[in-house]
Structures are given as C-alpha cells and as structure tokens.
Amino acid sequence: MAPPRSTGNSSIRSQTRPVHATKPVSCDPQKVDELTTQIADLKVTVDGLEKERDFYYGKLRDIEVLCQENEQKEGKSDVVEQILEILYATEVSADDFEEY
C-alpha cells in the first residue's frame, strides 16, 4: 500500500477560532413575554392586512376582466377607457385624490 500523498504545504493550516456564544445583556422574563406578545399581535395584523390586500386585488382584477371583455365586445367606451387608465396608472399623486 502506498503512503498518502501530500496535497499542499503542510506548514500552512487553516486556523479557526473557537466559537463562543454571547449571553444576552438582560434576561428579563417579563420583557421576553411582552415582546413575544407584541410579535404575535403584529403577525395577526400582517395576516389581516394580507387578506384585505388579496380581497381588494381580486375585486380590481374582476373589474379589469369585465372592462376588457366589454371593450372587446362593444369597442372602447369613454367610461371603460377611463377605468382602465386608472387601473393601469403606475403612480398616484395627491392631485389624483382631489379629483374624486
């Protein structure tokens, strides 16, 4: 059996430092509970906002499809054209809100 071959300079070895866990500055159980409750409340809020966003997105999508179908059947009407313009607008400025 042949001796193992050297794969490089054996005098250079990778040096690693030991990993030490850092301890928290304070470990107040009351503060941990308070923050845990706050996180749970924020998650509930985010879930509600996501559901609301999806709900209104679905409504807007239905309006878009209805306008596109109407546009194809009857040609462009002014109202459908204005609705599609609003739906496809990329930015909303404060001036746009004054129109409504």
Automatic annotation (TrEMBL):
Stored SUPFAM superfamilies: EB1 dimerisation domain-like
InterPro entries assigned: EB1_C, EB1_C_sf, MAPRE
Family matches, as Gene3D superfamilies: 1.20.5.1430
Keywords (A to Z) from UniProt: Cytoplasm, Cytoskeleton, Microtubule
Subcellular location: Cytoplasm, Cytoskeleton
Comp. bias intervals (Polar residues): 1-17
Primary site of residence: cytoplasm
GO CC annotation: microtubule
GO MF annotations in UniProt: microtubule binding
Top-rank taxon, per record: Eukaryota
Region Disordered, residue ranges: 1-27
EB1 C-terminal domain span: 24-96
Segment forming the signal sequence: none
PROSITE patterns in UniProt: EB1_C
PANTHER family: MICROTUBULE-ASSOCIATED PROTEIN RP/EB FAMILY MEMBER
Protein name, UniProt field: Microtubule-associated protein
